[in-house]
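Can anyone check this?
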Amino acid sequence: MNPILSEILTYLIVFAVGGGLCAIAQLLIIKTKLTPARILVIFLILGVVLEAVGVYKPINEFCQAGISVPIVGFGAALTRGAIEYAKQIGPLGALGGGLIRTSLGIGTAMIMSYLVTLIFSPRSK
């Protein structure tokens, strides 16, 4: 396949999957009494379950950033870290492995959010 068409197809898949997850979340907000926080937890647990049963990796290989960037990917990364460190260290590794695996992303989000508050000086209403 033409490399340019392959890239375009990849972007379309990522956009469709990520957009589909957002559409599902929006439908849950509109059609149910679920709060956005509860929907966030549902998606996080979905990532945990997909990783725990071993189907997240093949889905991620096809969907790429469409599934790994949203909170589903964060849940899968927490689970992957817990499983990996539980095998290496034992039960204590299961408790800290998820945080070790995701600490770079969490730290980056904290620093960037702080920098944004310095630049834009947000205020409460």
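Reply from J.R.: I decoded it. Residues 3-120 form one domain.
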